[in-house]
Structures are given as C-alpha cells and as structure tokens.
Design goal:
The protein has 465 residues and is mainly α. The chain contains 15 helices and no strands. It is found in: Cell membrane.
Length: 465
C-alpha cells in the first residue's frame, strides 16, 4: 500500500516527466517552417517530425503492456527516461534531417513507455472515487503541455534557435530522473511473461502500414505509395488481433474490447486525437507560412488556448467525478465542432486575435474530452487489464493523431496546388479553409458518436465496473 506522502511525490514526478516529454509531441510544429528551410526538405517530409514521432510512440505502446507486467516499476521508469534523454541529445547535435528523425524516434520510444506507465500507475495507486480529479490534473501534462509547447518553442527559435528546446527538456528530464530514483517504488505487480516477438512485429507492421498508407493517400488511394502500406497494415492488424485471441497469455489482451464503455471511450479518444493533432500542425503553418508572422507570434497565438486548457482540466476531472461523462462528452464535442467551423471562414484579413480566440475555444473542448474519456473507459475494466487497456487506448489514439497530421497536411498541400490557377495568391488560404472544413466534418462524427452512444452507455453519472 502506497502512503499518501509517497503517492503525492510519485504523482508530482510523473507530472514533471510527462509535461517535459509531452511538450515535444507538438513543440516542433512551430519550428517546422524553420527546419524545412534549414534542412532543405518539403512540408510533407517535415511533418514526419511530429507524425513520425506519434507513429513510433504508437508502435511502442503495445509493448508497454508486456514491459509493465514483466519488469519492476522503478527500473522501467528510469530506463524510459534514459531512452528519452538519449533521443534529446541526438536532436541537439543533429547535422541533418535523418539524425534528427532518429532522435525523435528514440524520444518517442521513451515517451511511449512513460505515458503508458503514468496512467497505469495513477489508476493503480489512487482509489476509484479520486481517479477523475487526479487524472484531470494529470491531463495538464498531456493536454496543456503539447498546446503550450509551440508558444515556448516560438520564443526560443527567435532568440536562440530551435535546438534550445531540446536543451531545456534535457535539464528537466535529468531532474526528473534524480527525483524518481529517490521517491519511486515498485508499485505495480509483476509476473513472468514470455515475449511474443511475432505479435510485436505484427503490431509494428499494422500501425506503420496504416499510417504510411494514409499519409501518402494524397497521391492516389490506389498508388503503390499508399495502397501497399494500407494493405500490409490491414492484414497485419487482422493477424495481430487473431493471434491475441488465440494466445494463452496475450501480448496485448484484446478482451478489453468486450467492454462497451471502454470501446466508446476508445473510439471517442481516437476521433479527438485525429482532429487535435491535425489542427496543431496546421495552425503554425497558417501563422508563419501563410500570414508571414514570426515563430514567436505563432507561439503566442496558441498561448490563450494553453491557459484555457490549463484552467479547465482539473475542473473537468471534478465534474466527471460528480456528474459522469454524458454532458462532458456532448458539450466538448459540440465546442470542438464550432471551433473548427470558425476556422473555415478565415481569410488573409482575419486578425490573429480571432485565430487565437478560436484556438482557445478548441483547447477548452479538448480539455473537456481528453482525460475524462480515458478515466471513464479505464474505470470500467478489470484492474488486471489496466496495463493492456491503457496500452491499447493510448496507442490507437496516438496513431489516430499521426494519421490526422499526415492526412490534413497532405490535404492542404494538394488543395493549395490545385487551386493555384484559380485562386492565385489566395490558394494557400483556400487550401487551409478546405482542410478545416474536413476537420469540421470529422468533429460532426464525434458529436454524432457522443449523442448516439450516450443513449446506451452514458445515462448514469457513476457507472461501476
């Protein structure tokens, strides 16, 4: 049994680690235009610094269920921080895009373990009646941190260059490593489990194939670049699922999918991340590449949204504990729809204050949905499946985010090119408007899903396992 003081110290350490690691999920969105110029790469290639990061995290996360069950909590947590720091060091010295991408992949591997472990640890050491509130505070790290990161990065780029962001996170993670050595214990149960290499390989091909295929879909659905990876991804996913249901000790226990509430929270989280990560990479391109403002201004535009999410996340956790998920789900989905709809009508004459306001509205919507969906889904599965449920939910929503980044950047690039003969100098803003229209339609799906699933799964405020 973890004592209250130690539980609080572990929670603070998790917050520090996850804030630092989560920042780098989106920090490079502001730096992307600068990196594109420095490394002489295309926008489509550059966006893989964020979507490739998400992809690597998603591939890593099914493995975390095995790692959490097999290895002591403290050693695994410290190893994850070490992986992350090595990736940061590579990014600092990166002479070209390839080395930087390798560094990003190592960072993603470390972050994948950290983020999965964090949720399992918190859901294990805190009682059911406190989970909503504590996960609301935890939501600041994986919610507000990625949103505020572009602001910090923008300022650092204009003052010292984009590499300073990695120096800053290295310092934070070293402090976190020392703190974890002092306060952590092995708080999660372990048992011997055989590592199923085939399952891990199949999961990698499934996630990788789907993301690469959808990311290249702008050329043609039936082209070799998109069709072949999609086919490989779908086949691998089918084989992976079949294998898990027929293993005595599954690599990733998919029996969690038999729980209807977990499935609803999973699909809702995937739709949310699909929209959220797409808009997070498009917004800096709008401010810098289309509007022509500096990286600092681009970062400051996202600041009101960061503050709004920071303020609302703890309250949404308490709201969830008291009233349940139904109202939060529907209101958050409607707010996300309206904020994306507002972006559809942006022109070159639209002030950055309006853009910042719309982004703040979007951030509030995300704050209403992100952690409450996770807490709600995870609170309705058996404790023995917590590691597996967390790995599945986190990996699939992360891969949805990677797909969103790839799809919306490809869509904007394609529409802009095709619109040049008609719109001329306004082609880029037209491409952006159509891209946000696609995000709006995606948000409509989330609203419909929240409404119809609510009739059967969200009727009570305190459903129990």
């Amino acid at each position: 049994m973890v004592k209250d003081k130690q539980r609080t110290l572990i929670f603070i350490n998790i917050l520090i680690s996850c804030i630092a690691s989560s920042m780098l999920a989106t920090a490079l969105t502001t730096a992307l235009p600068t990196m594109i110029n420095e490394f002489n790469i295309s926008v489509t290639t550059g966006q893989w610094l964020t979507s490739g990061y998400s992809l690597a995290m998603a591939i890593m996360m099914p493995l975390t269920a095995f790692l959490i069950i097999r290895f002591p909590t403290k050693k695994l947590y410290l190893a994850a921080i070490s992986f992350f720091v090595v990736g940061l060091l590579l990014a600092v010295i990166a002479p070209n895009f390839t080395v930087l991408m390798i560094g990003r992949i190592l960072q993603a591997c470390g972050n994948g373990i950290l983020s999965s472990m964090a949720q399992v640890i918190l859901l294990t050491i805190y009682p059911l009646e406190k989970r909503g509130s504590i996960m609301g505070w935890y939501g600041l790290s994986i919610g507000a941190a990625p949103v505020i990161a572009p602001t910090i990065t923008g300022i650092l780029i204009d003052i010292t260059g984009w590499r300073m962001m990695f120096y800053l996170v290295i310092a934070i993670m070293i402090v976190s490593f020392i703190w974890a050595m002092a306060v952590f214990d092995d708080v999660l149960p372990n048992r011997k489990q055989t590592f199923d290499l085939l399952s891990f390989v199949l999961s990698g091909f499934a996630y990788g194939g789907l993301t690469l295929g959808i990311g290249n879909i702008s050329s043609s659905l039936f082209s070799l670049q998109s069709g072949l990876p999609l086919l490989i991804g779908l086949l691998s996913m089918g084989l992976f699922a079949y294998r898990q249901f027929h293993l005595d000790d599954p690599f990733l226990d998919l029996s969690v999918l038999k729980n209807k509430i977990f499935v609803v929270s999973l699909i809702g989280s995937m739709l949310l991340y699909f929209i959220m990560m797409g808009s997070s990479i498009i917004l800096p391109l709008l401010i810098q590449s289309i509007e022509g403002y500096s990286a600092t201004v681009s970062g400051l535009v996202t600041l009101p949204g960061s503050l709004a999410m920071t303020l609302i996340s703890p309250f949404t956790g308490k709201f969830y504990d008291k009233f349940g998920m139904k109202k939060l789900f529907f209101v958050g989905a409607i707010a996300l729809l309206l904020s994306n709809l507002g972006m559809v009508f942006i022109t070159l004459k639209t002030t950055i204050f309006i853009i910042a306001l719309l982004n703040a509205f979007r951030s509030i919507a995300i704050g209403c949905l992100m952690m409450p969906l996770v807490t709600w889904g995870m609170s309705h599965i058996d404790n023995s499946l917590t590691a597996h449920g967390t790995a599945l939910l986190t990996s699939l929503r992360t891969i949805a985010g990677a797909i969103g980044s790839a799809v919306f950047v490809s869509l904007m690039t394609t529409i802009t090119k095709q619109s040049l003969p008609i719109y001329g100098g306004n082609a880029a803003i037209h491409g952006l408007n159509i891209t946000f229209l696609a995000m709006t339609l995606s948000a409509v799906l989330l609203v419909l899903f929240a409404f119809f699933s609510g009739k059967s799964t969200l009727d009570t405020a305190t459903e129990l396992k």
